[in-house]
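Ligand: acetyl coenzyme *A. Inputs:
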Amino acid sequence: MSEKPEYVPGLAGIPAARSSVCLIDGAAGKLQYRGYPAEQLAEHCTFEEVTYLLLFGELPTRAQLEGFSAELARERSLKFRIIDVLKQLPESGHPMDALTAAVAVMGMFYAEGDHVADPAFRRLCAIRLVAKLPTVVAAWHRIRRGDNPIEPRTDLGHAANFLYMLEGEEPDELAARIMDVALVLHAEHSMNASTFTCRVTASTLADPYAAVASAIGSLAGPLHGGANEVVLQMLRTIPDASPEAVRRWAEDKLARKEKIMGFGHRVYKVKDPRADILQGLAVSLFEKLGTTPIYSIAVELERQMKDLVGHKGIAPNVDFYSGIVYEKLGLDTDNFTPVFAISRVSGWLAHLLEQLEDNRIYRPSQVWTGTADRTVVPIADRG
Ligand code: ACO
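Predicted complex:
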């Protein structure tokens, strides 16, 4: 007789799929998309190239990339009724909630009678979702402060066009490149909470908009993508960058068993390789725009944390330095996680396509902890 599988909280270490999208070696700090090191992709490729790689399994030729980029650029704009939906939302609402809502309604506006079983429909949904998410984020950024959204441009790259749609100013080369690298670095990360959510929803044969809307909801939480927003707020509560002040602050938090945001990872037991690259991007931005006091605090916190909890494998994750980069690029703090979403959508969709190639609906089991076989007492007789 086979033994019942053991219950593992958070499904830690339990394989949930067979996948060829992303490989992580948490002990070595290794991250690869489709077998290519993330560091090399960040150095040599654009977000469009990486999205092509994730969705279709191979790096594109120049002709394939031009065709793909043109398709994405053509699909950037939103139906005006989706903008109307955004205009009905409370301006105090969080941009991640606006994004979830907009993506869910996209499924109604772009349904076109097709079905997810059709690979051509799946491909079209993938192109549309990657193309339109930045437009939604930029539109909501403007609508909530009373401005009209800015139409996307087709002559700019994905990252540059996103920055352009925020304020109507074409970004300089450095800002566009840094945004592009940040998008590349966040595009995929194997079976994390939001990717798992996306695969579970996709496995029911729900449409890709529903799958991505559910993934955005999952990404929003502070233990996952939402951490990048909280990191900056947290760093601001540290009085100064002196070793004594930072140490005292960290020791207090740890003594209270509070999590220090931007540290720790289910898979990495060393510094997340993406954190190193993002730190480098922050430094290159400072060379042009001047440094920020928060950065010195962050560097000192990394140093103190290494001493305090480094032996437990708790090190900076991707979210630790990303907020510092985004703030320097002029993004609002609550737009950091939406930026994560406009990148990670490529990874979610790669997993969705993989899931649907060989689908079986997710339906795990549970360990029953309740009382069984109870008898209902009619309400009139209950004490
Ligand atoms: N600060 C302090 N202690 C920590 C931290 C942290 N950031 N992360 C883990 N630990 C400690 C825990 O307290 C626990 O200690 P214990 O064994 O003495 O009780 C141990 O390390 C294991 O931590 P878990 O929370 O059980 O690890 P898990 O793998 O479940 O969680 C997670 C990983 C959620 C990322 C966790 O490290 C965390 O909450 N980090 C802060 C939030 C964050 O930065 N999230 C972004 C992650 S990257 C991403 O999703 C894009």
